[in-house]
Amino acid sequence: MAGSIPGPTTVRSFGFNIPCRRFLIRANVMRDRRLPVVDEFVLRTLKLCEDVPVRRLASYFGFSAAETEMVMADLTSAGLVVLEGDTARLHPSAHELFRGPKDAIPLVVEVDSWVERLWFDLVSKNMAKPDRTRSARNLIDIRPTGMARDLPGSYAKKAFEDNFAEYLRKVRRMANPDRFTLYSVSESIPERFGSLVFRMDEDLVFDPEPRLRPNLIAIEAEDALRFRPLATAMLDAYRKLNWIQASAAALAEFSGLSGETTVTDAYSGTARFDLTKWLSLNPDRKNPDRQNIIGASYIRRNVDFLAKLIDNLPKPASVEASSEREIVWYRPGGSGWGCSPELQEAILAIKFALRRRFGKVSIRTKLICPTISRRDHPDRFRNLFDEGHIAPPGFLSPAVEVIHIPAVATLMLVAVALSESVEIPVGFASVAADPLNRVTRRLAQVDARFEELWRSEKREEEGPIPIEPEIEDVDDT
């Protein structure tokens, strides 16, 4: 089984709203700056030769009389060179420009005033780097404990002083942080509370039996000790999530909806799903209009598969092209579904694929929840989908998931059991006519009986995902 999937494979992703506080830091930072090339080589020559006649310098570098006069004037006015008659030598202070090995280049030290806005998480009390996405209601909330909210400005000041090099590498993402040295911190002012997004993946590994391993991608291994309180809180929240278990009824419904039995066949009459056998029954590239899917529907790998199928569709004739499209998402049950920034990114990616293929079309999104999901606060997806509905009892097994884009594409998943404790979703994405027609016929039977939870007016077309998050305030109570 393990041979069919090389290395760990991400099957789910999660996002956590981490409570943070922002501090305004005013700092004075020393920076090494290289001199102009001409000045640099004159100073290096004087460093090696001590006293040098100006005429010999001009001859050596090929300077004209006017160029020589200009260079010497600049260096003497900067206090780096002393002229005694026709002889030039380094000013004593210029020797400080040469640090490190004897053949080091001369560097000028400048002091810059920096105004930084720095985030600290309120669980482990460490500097935090903003994620590309904004906090959202569908993500998992982590709450601070005790008096964590009372971080004073002095705490941020000392943390900035003690971890300046780390701040440059991990927050500012500087490739050459050694050029900078912290001279002083003149002010540290507590500002607003907010939330930053920390991400986590769930990886499927075989060693040799299958297991699901959480991967805290937002916390680097070298920082694990310092971030342990935050990592513990995230893992505790992750372990409280639940998913609808695999069942024979769900498998039968998936087979009927999809028109194929390969998922059921991969059980071979046992209680365990054989992933290797299932992949062998559905070899890659066998059908150009179909793609195997392993893991949550919205993780980037699977959304890319779906988008590629849409991209490869034949271009529609102008008379067939519709100015409106709809993405209908039938989510499975379980509190763990959709707790990821990748859900929003998936919706946008599918919209972009539709517009690449069909032009500037209006796209509406609809979320259909199983009855059992009432307890999981389905309104937390209100900002992601234009409409939200509850399906009538018995409409679809809560262990089955379907993304349906009428007349374009569909993606179907069902929960399968790899062992007594490991279950994952598997299925396929397709643009073939048969699965599309099957889903369409099934939806037409009950669409009028959906219970509406919310409905928004037509939205403006979304732009690209923002590069920097918009930090939302956190309730101080």
Structure description:
- The protein has 477 residues and is α+β, with helices and mostly antiparallel strands.
- The protein folds into 3 domains: 2-29 and 111-239, no CATH class; 36-105, Winged helix-like DNA-binding domain superfamily/Winged helix DNA-binding domain (Arc Repressor Mutant, subunit A, Orthogonal Bundle); 248-455, Endonuclease, Chain A.
- It has 12 helices and 17 strands.
- The chain has helices at 37-49, 54-61, 65-77, 153-162, 164-171, 228-239, 248-258, 262-265, 275-281, 300-311, 341-358, 433-446; strands at 9-34, 52-53, 81-84, 87-90, 107-121, 127-128, 140-141, 180-206, 210-215, 290-294, 324-330, 362-369, 387-390, 400-405, 409-417, 423-430, 451-455.
- The strands form 3 sheets. It has an 8-stranded mixed sheet, sandwiched between helices. Strands 1, 5, 6, 7, 8 and 9 form a 6-stranded mixed sheet that branches.
- The two termini are 50 Å apart.
- Residues 463-477 have low confidence and may be disordered.
